[in-house]
From TrEMBL, chain B:
Protein name as it appears in the record: Sugar ABC transporter permease
SUPFAM superfamilies the record matches: MetI-like (SSF161098)
Location(s) in or outside the cell: Cell membrane
Keywords: Cell membrane, Membrane, Transmembrane, Transmembrane helix, Transport
Top-level lineage group: Bacteria
Organism listed in the record: Candidatus Caldatribacterium californiense
Keyword Zinc found: no
InterPro entries listed in its UniProt record: ABC_transporter_permease, MetI-like, MetI-like_sf
UniProt-listed GO biological process terms: transmembrane transport
Family membership: Belongs to the binding-protein-dependent transport system permease family.
PANTHER family per UniProt: ABC TRANSPORTER PERMEASE PROTEIN, INNER MEMBRANE ABC TRANSPORTER PERMEASE PROTEIN YCJO
Main location: membrane
Residues passing through the membrane, by range: 12-39, 78-97, 109-137, 157-184, 205-223, 269-286
Short name of any one Pfam family annotated for the protein: BPD_transp_1
Length: 424, 294
């Protein structure tokens, strides 16, 4: 009995030793994905890359819905299991500077679109992140629905002011189409909608930074700020025409994409990351972005621009990964940027707008196309990403209260001012 | 065999049987716990390579964190409702299901089942029930109560949490009460009946006193569960609408990982631990005093 057991143990040990020998010939790298909507597509790409690069295996790990990538990466580091490549939010990149590999020497640094590396460049000029995706947001419209309701081809440039938007909503309502849906998600309302008010303060990013600094110092009176009030006036208009007006806080992200994709509503406040879901419901549909107007003067900054920015960065781990793994990760990024197949995957499979000048592929997805039009026309607002980590959650909650009519505008602005005064 | 007589032999016996468990418990529970307590005295943010000792500063921040205290208050309310409701319902079910009604074994299993479903899955199922099924029913029959999703209203979302928690844990407590009820000697109950005690009197003066050890256990378990609930909170309401149902465990987690104030979150967690220990010890002590000899 004992001999049998000993023999069995030795067999197991020998087997595992043999397995680890065969495994060492291959380099395994892990890729933490925090864009849930492209998980399946990324896995396909990993499988494809695994065939091309024979001795490298890329494994894609999803970041659970509702968990921030920062939390996930921190806990993976704590368990000694750091991902070789981690996709993190732009605002978190620099927090990983102790752990992230220096990427300054990489070829793609030279090809990155100006400004796209700002969030990943340390004070001494070291680049620690790879700009993975350029994203933008605004009011997504379903052109088919608009054309049908208006009886003519809809021209997005005709909507330049709040009045125009309101008139359009009214026309849609009279035509029996629900004008829009507001998804009551804290990240959408807090990080995206309200931060338009920061971005629209000035076309100069430095002025925006200064505005945020003043907010922290408690020197800004939001009640007196015409841009903040203008944005909230537009929000009031949007609230009044919201399909979920009677129960504004119960909606979900899926409900939003479903309503727009099936044509039940004409517009949805969201960003180009919504395409995988919309495309599934309505692959041939025509969609585009409208800016969220903040005043009745068509020439005001912000009325014809939409926020666009590099929102997701990839960082490579230098602490817990071997040299070979780090090299494999760098190769994988270069493959995405410089290999024709890799570019095709990035643009067409993932529906991502790359942040690199050398990639000239035209995206097929209509939302990415619409964003590129704004980018090429120079009509972009800053996508404000340098916000405190819990800004989306806190300001999102205040906006939810306002959306649900639980607080007045004065109370909303008080809460936001207070948040900024006390933030770390 | 190892001798039990000498002190050395005793230690040897202990190590032989409980050594591995002690080692595992020490390394994965005690050590991390002590290290965690140490971290509350530093400014480590969970990620950086260096940190310095800051003394009790983090605890002062805990007292200044208003959101923590409102979450804590909400948790006390939640614990009060769930403990009372869970135990009343569990005891009632147990009493009915030991009285010999038909199909009682099947019913016992049925009431126990919710406890086998994990908090996240349970939360998602009920989320669907509250925001879709009940709303559909409400619209169909014009019931004002269900016309809007419960989860979109602060008070109703709180009650949704309470209802689901009670639904989940009363089956578990019921099993404990059933074990207790079956262990009560029949002769005592019979004697009381012969003496002319009514059903209610038997319950009040014979059964409940004899059941005290079990009640203590059940209240202890439901107290402790209530204080540290996180999964259900996360999956059912996500603290929403607008953070109005954020219980204290969720607040601690968000403070540490979302607001990225790890050191304060950790201090709040330790504070919460101390509170739970205090409350449950007091409860067990009082429970013990109420016990009677047969």
């Amino acid at each position: 009995m004992v001999r049998k057991l000993v023999f069995f143990l030795i067999a197991v040990l020998a087997l595992s030793a043999a397995m680890s020998v065969t495994a060492s010939a291959k380099v395994n790298i892990t890729f933490l994905n925090s864009k849930g909507e492209i998980q399946a597509q990324l896995e396909e790409i990993a499988a494809l890359y695994n065939e091309i690069a024979k001795d490298v295996t890329v494994e894609v790990i999803p970041c659970p819905v509702g968990q921030s990538p920062f939390e996930k990466v921190v806990s993976m580091y704590a368990s000694g299991n750091a991902p070789t490549i981690a996709m993190v939010d732009a605002g978190d990149v620099k927090k990983f500077q102790d752990k992230a590999l220096n990427l300054t020497g990489e070829r793609w640094v030279q090809d990155a679109i100006p400004g796209s590396l700002d969030m990943a460049t340390l004070e001494d000029g070291t680049v620690v992140g790879f700009p993975f995706a350029v994203e933008g947001y605004g009011l997504i419209y379903n052109k088919k629905v608009l054309d049908k309701a208006l009886g003519k081809s809809f021209d997005p440039s005709s909507i330049r002011t709040r009045k125009d938007l309101q008139a359009l909503f009214e026309e849609l309502k009279n035509a029996g189409v629900a004008p829009l849906v507001i998804s009551p998600l804290d990240w959408s309302l807090g990080a995206h909608f309200f931060s338009i008010a920061y971005a629209a303060q000035s076309p100069d990013p430095k002025q925006v930074d200064a505005f945020l600094k003043d907010l922290r110092a408690g020197k800004v009176d939001l009640q007196q700020n015409s841009i903040v009030n203008g944005l909230l006036d537009t929000f009031d208009v949007m609230r009044a025409y919201n399909i979920d007006k009677d129960d504004p806080l119960s909606g979900t992200y899926d409900r939003g994409s479903y309503l727009l994709g099936t044509g039940e509503v004409a517009m949805w406040f969201m960003g180009n990351w919504a395409w995988p879901q919309l495309g599934e419901l309505d692959p041939e549909g025509e969609y585009g972005f409208l800016p969220v107007p903040i005043s009745d003067n068509p020439d005001d900054y912000g009325n014809s621009q939409i926020p666009v920015g590099a929102t997701k960065f990839l960082i490579l781990d230098r602490e817990q990964s071997s040299e070979a793994e780090q090299q494999a990760a760098k190769d994988f990024l270069n493959w995405l940027v410089y290999d024709a197949k890799g570019q095709d995957m990035l643009v067409n499979k993932l529906s991502i707008i790359p942040a690199f000048k050398n990639i000239t592929l035209e995206p097929r997805d209509p939302l990415a196309k619409s964003i590129l039009q704004y980018v090429r026309a120079g009509k972009t607002l800053q996508f404000v990403l340098d916000l405190p980590a819990d800004h989306w959650r806190m300001v999102g909650a205040f906006m939810q209260k306002y959306l649900g009519n639980a607080i007045s505008r004065d109370e909303l602005l008080d809460e936001i001012e207070n948040y900024w005064k006390n933030v770390k | 065999m190892v001798s039990e007589k000498t002190p050395f032999g005793k230690v040897g016996t202990y190590l032989l049987f409980a050594g591995p468990t002690t080692f595992a418990f020490f390394t994965v529970v005690i050590l991390p716990f002590l290290f965690g307590v140490y971290l509350t005295l530093t400014n480590w943010n969970g990620l950086s390579a260096t940190y310095v000792f800051v003394g009790l500063k983090n605890y002062r921040m805990v007292f200044e964190d208003r959101a923590f205290w409102s979450s804590f208050g909400l948790t006390l309310r939640y614990v009060a409702y769930t403990v009372v409701l869970t135990n009343v319902i569990a005891f009632t079910l147990a009493y009915l299901l030991t009285s010999g009604i038909r199909g009682q074994n099947f019913l016992r299993a049925g009431f126990f089942v919710p406890n086998l479903i994990g908090g996240i899955v349970l939360g998602l199922i009920w989320r669907f029930v509250f925001s879709n099924v009940l709303v559909y029913v409400g619209k169909r029959f014009g019931w004002e109560l269900f016309l809007r999703s419960w989860l979109a209203h602060p008070d109703k979302a709180f009650w949704a949490l309470v209802i689901v928690s009670v639904w989940q844990s009363s089956g578990y407590m019921m099993v404990i009460y059933i074990a207790g009820l079956m262990g009560i000697p029949k002769d005592l109950v019979e004697a009381a009946t012969i003496e002319g005690a009514t059903g209610l009197q038997r319950l009040r003066y014979v059964i409940l006193p004899l059941l005290t050890p079990f009640t203590t256990v059940c209240i202890f378990l439901s107290l402790q569960r209530g204080f540290i609930v996180y999964d259900l909170n996360k999956a059912l309401t996500e603290g929403g609408p607008y953070k109005s149902t954020e219980l204290v465990a969720m607040h601690v987690y968000e403070k540490a990982f979302l607001a990225q104030q790890y050191e304060i979150g950790q201090s709040e967690a330790f504070f919460l631990f101390a509170m739970i220990v205090g409350v449950t010890l007091a409860q067990v002590y009082l429970g013990k005093r109420l016990e009677v000899e047969q």
